[in-house]
Amino acid sequence: MSAIPSPVLAEISSMVGADQLTTRPEDLHCYSYDGTAAPHLPAAVVFPENVEQVGKIMQLASRYGFPVVPRGAGSGMTGGAVALRGGLIMAMARMSKIIEVDEANQIAIVEPGVVTGDLQRTVRRHGLFYPPDPASLNYCTIGGNAAECAGGPSAVKYGVTKDYIIGLEVVLASGDIITTGARTEKSVTGYDLTRLFVGSEGTLGIITKLVLRLLPLPPYKETFLLTSTSLKRTTELVSEILNAHIKPCTLEYLDRSTINVVADFLSSPPPAGTEALLIVEIDGEQPVVAEQTRRLRELLAGQSEFTLRQAGNDKEIEEIWQARRAISPSVLKLRPNKISEDVAVPRSRIPELVAFIEQLSRDLDLIMLTFGHAGDGNIHVNIMLDRSDPDQAERGKQAKAALFRQAIALGGTLSGEHGIGFSKAPYLPYEFNDATIALMQRIKGLFDPKNILNPGKIFPPPEI
Q1: Cross-strand partners of 342
Q2: Which pTM value belongs to this model?
């Protein structure tokens, strides 16, 4: 574990306040892991209050060569916020101000520690909305969302985090403070550094302020729960809905195994024989929603595999979404451990991907659940296992590698929204050739020549 000299820790402590730096073992353990359940202890955790403190801390890190790992809520699934080589965890929780909501220009300026759900509720009071809505929105933070380029159910219509960040304030490895982008919809001044930082997992700089694009709040929304007796037809239906000039703001898919683990959250459990569910939401002006609803019902007419139920009130809507958001914790009913992965493929290839996963599950004798954002081809796969059984653990690794190979073979990608971190880093060559990876590494070296910003992520050393 990379240590930090005691005099440096004392200097950081005097800078931020003694109660905002900790080296107590019990605190370090709390900041040692994320959703990967693969802990690595940092040497210390610091809670900066402003960009000036972040800049001064990075100057010290650059001078003394210790790693710094920026961290939001630690809800990531690939190890992006884990101190793989020790050093300093920089927890951004104190930098949690919504600095401005500019109704006239439909933008918000926020600090990275703002909880995504809190931002959404705040801008809603101004008649606006911030579309990215990861399942962890009630505790994940905007800074972490930016680092991983989070998506969510609304991405099928509205896009992902990178589509709503138009400007940044960033502290570089040297401690220098830069700004990117602008408060305007259009800006082509120089290179698009904003897009470069979004999704870079804290390996190029530490985001300390974000300028976010907002949209007018849709005045009307209808929510539907579609049950199906055919998994194959359900996955095929995704493309059929979009090709029928229906533009849902949500198109979420759950397979049979996933339905079983969240059935208790539904007051009316799906009927016997249900093989899959789709959550469909349509928003906009009421006449548009009514027309889109008519098209959806027309598309499904005469297809006996499907049953469409429209949510009648807010309670029924919340019930549906409570079931969807309960998937990740609920699946642990099946096995004590899981490998949680997300891949994305072209929508038309979803049926092939799901069929492959079902066969892989049988071949390796593992429970494998599929669910997620079918509207944009981003399928989440949970591989359930008991890691204390070496044989199961090995089959889990085989399943993960086979899943990634198949996603790439179908024209897809290793990750739709979870990022690479260290858990997916060994598989990066599945998607990119040597020249592409080398270029990315040169960019990393330009921004962080001493490799102190979140080292071991995306491009891990051979021993990891």
Answers
A1: 380
A2: 0.95
